[in-house]
Amino acid sequence: MTAPAIPRLALPFDLDLVLPGSKSVAHRVLVAAALAEGPTRIANATPGDDVRRTFEGLRALGFDLRLLDETAGEVAVAGGPPAAREGGRIDCGNSGTSLRLLISVAALVDGRWELDGDDDLRRRPVGDLVRAWRDLGLEIEDTDGRPPIRLRGGGVRGGAITLRAAASGQFLSSLLLAGASLPEGLEIELEGPLASPGYVALTLETLDRFDVPAAVEGAKYRVPPARRPGGGNVLVESDWSAAGVWSVLSEITGGRYRDPGLRADSRQSDRSLEEVLLALRGDGERVIDLSRMPDQLMNLAVLAARRRGRTRFVGIANLRHKECDRLAVTVRELGRCGFRAEEEAEGIAVSGGDAPRPAVVDPERDHRVAMAFAMLGALGCDVRVADQACVAKSYPDFFADLERAAASPRCLALIGMRGAGKSSIGASLARALDLAFLDVDRVFEAEVAPIAAFVAARGWPAFRAEEAELTESLLRPGRVVSLGGGAVETPAVREALAERALVLWVDEDLATLRERIAADASRPSVTGADPVEEAAQLAERRRPLYESLAAIRLPPGEEASARLERALKEVRATCTW
After folding, report:
1. Is the separation of the CB atoms in 11 and 405 below 8 Å?
2. What is the largest CA-CA distance in the chain?
3. Which of 372, 380, 500, 502 is most buried, by CB atoms within 10 Å?
């Protein structure tokens, strides 16, 4: 196999993203809007292959949906009964969500319908969902528990059923979305475990948005018959599943990303990925239950290959029935890249700490496998990913965003005592990395006033406030910024550093500091004592702050050239496997 090179991160990134809208939310909102009795205007419905299949499938069933702006994911849904059709074939491509949700929509619509997809989709289970509809009286048949599905829609009144949803929580979501359209509603009792319960919670939130009063009592779910109004204007929130690769890459490199469309209060299960990342810090064995966020397995497996220790991911047996057998493919491709992994009954185990080897990863047309293993190439491993176009399923711009990340290095901020050498090392570091260099003190004196005169006229508190505002404005991607020695004593500066910069602490011994301070009479005393004498007191007070903020410490006593070499090595190491 051949594959294009993956953009290489030379430094931690700082990136503003416009992530796709959550395809999990978009699927559900499209179906709920089609089954409503009034209009809905949807924005940010993921312009990926999967959501397009649901959109086209609903249109094939006779519902009135219009794509207003594909790039923005703007869709107008008229709501109300579908136009009369005799039936037809609905091609779900490789979208398992489209297939499972549209089975239940087709069950409501008069006509003979066939739902099918590509060879990968034909391996995905739907037997338990088909069995539930058959128990409700629908004329429906599958093919050994898999597509193609043939059914005669209409005429089902609803009622009480049991459902097995261990293979996919989408079976339950599908029934819940259709339940209010049945004359008797639905009462569903789960038989056995529920796969991916977080996504069912997302379905219940969607029903609530469309005024459908679903109720949950233990393993029982009830949806009464309801006249659901249109949803009005619905903005699909950004996709926490797509954000996962950026969260893991940020954890590894010290980079950061932002997307204002990511809701902190989201019901998307992958919103909780940060908790897992914290649990994986440090060495040693870990057992991680991913039953609530199975889509993050591939991203986390790459992280596990990097950390020292054995990591077991459990609760994800249903990943064998996704776009590919994600357990087998993840284990196989980790092995291809030189890492040790093994498949288990409920997940996989990864033994980290090995060096990678050159490889071309075969994602088997699975978008999440492709994005996860692209991280290896971004971190300088000689790893490429075949069939990169498969990311169009959920995140068409992923590799373009990775290219932007490589061109948007995070701000490097230098902290330390006056006289430690922050300005000289900062200027040299910026030249070596081809970044802009700014010294906060020099900018202050050029744009506000000489520091000594400002402090004499207005005092240190006023200076610290002005310094903090200026520092926040200067901490931007593509820059190396040297801060004043006492800037870290201001809470706003500490918050800005933690959010916006990779921080290097330029440490120096007290004798050297005193010698350099004595040679520079331009700065006033902070405490009222002689500037040389107060250095020990200030250093003791500030040292815990320096330690808490710094990602990299440059130790005292090194020559300028050795210190620069160390700084370059440690900064670059953040993005090296």
Report:
1. no
2. 93
3. 372
